[in-house]
Amino acid sequence: MANKLALLVLPGASLAGVGVWQDGRICLQEQVRQTFAATDKQGMDSEFFTLSVDGRPVRLADRTLFSVDGAVTDERAYSFIWLPAFLAENDHQFTAGMSQAATLHPWLRKQHALGATIAASGAAMLLLAGSGLTQDMALPLSVPLQIKARKIDPRLRLSQPTDLADRGDIILSPGAAHDAAAVMRGLQRALTHGIGRYLSALYGLPEDEQHESATPQMERAKLLLEQTFASNMAIQMVAERLSISPSAFTRQFRKAFHVSPKAYVQDLRLFSAKTMLERTNRKIDDIAINVGYSDSRLFRMMFKKATGQSAREWRANVQTEKGL
């Protein structure tokens, strides 16, 4: 069961919104390859899909034809879905586009119920509203879109388009200036924390967690650990990259983040293992190797100590909760 990520393209989709996804996909695949290179060529088994309402190519805002992998009628369950903003030349075209897209409402509700994080930009967030997925959220729409939204449903809660609206499972972007942050947040939640932090750093996006006592050197060290945690030599390699001794690195890291590098690596391995257990059908022994444990017995002991359950029990319970 691979980790599936989807770009849902509507007619008139913004080139910027589609481009952010394409850039993120390329960077992500390269970083996953590097993170798990020492243990596994397949890494996180993440699969990217581009979808349209009917599975046919879609004309983007600049009239270019964009090919897709299939329609939303498939039975896949996605971890993250991105809906870029779409543009309409006039009110008639906008109304027609919204009517066609309304067929997506049941599919969006189903994906959300299966645990997908869904992000939408601009007019596309009206599809989430129409699906009943934003009832407790204010939509950060531009003034022209607010006028259109009021015509569709006067009861919609609206806000000024100054920042993302983020509930955790639903992310709403006011437009192109915020689309990269919306996509990166969604990918962070679908993938390992370390890879998500790498993408945020690559795009120059702010992080949710700030450490006032952390120096730039230790922030870099933390990011390097998140990129190399699957290696048995992760701590030594990071210390060498920073040109300090392992003992000095441990002291400085603990002072900055109130946790040792070894404990932090163990946390990263545990988080990554949980992600693989939940979203892939890999054997537990293979997962142990992939996240950095050469001895699967040690991994099983660590996992049970940390969670109170065996890895097999944890996987079964999570998949039962999600109806998988």
Question: Can you put this structure into words, describing what you see?
Answer:
The protein is an alpha/beta fold and 324 residues long. The chain has two domains: 3-195, Class I glutamine amidotransferase (GATase) domain (Rossmann fold), CATH 3.40.50; 213-324, Arc Repressor Mutant, subunit A, CATH 1.10.10.60. The chain has 14 helices and eleven strands. The protein has a seven-stranded mixed sheet with strand order 5-2-1-6-7-11-10, covered by helices on one side. A two-stranded antiparallel sheet has the order 3-4. It has a two-stranded parallel ribbon with strand order 8-9. Strand 8 (139-140), helix 5 (143-152) and strand 9 form a beta-alpha-beta unit. The longest helix has 21 residues, at 15-35. The termini are close together. The relative contact order is 0.11. Keywords: DNA-binding, Transcription, Transcription regulation. This is Transcriptional regulator GlxA family with amidase domain. It comes from Novosphingobium fluoreni.
Lateral strand order in the biggest sheet: 5-2-1-6-7-11-10
Shape, please?
elongated
Query: Could you give the order of the helices and strands?
Result: EHEEEEEHHEHEHEEEHHHHHHHHH
The CATH H-level homologous superfamily of the largest domain:
Class I glutamine amidotransferase (GATase) domain
Tally of helical runs: 14
GO molecular function: DNA-binding transcription factor activity; sequence-specific DNA binding
InterPro entries: Class_I_gatase-like (IPR029062), Homeodomain-like_sf (IPR009057), HTH_AraC (IPR018060), HTH_AraC-typ_CS (IPR018062)
Keywords: DNA-binding, Transcription, Transcription regulation
Protein name: Transcriptional regulator GlxA family with amidase domain
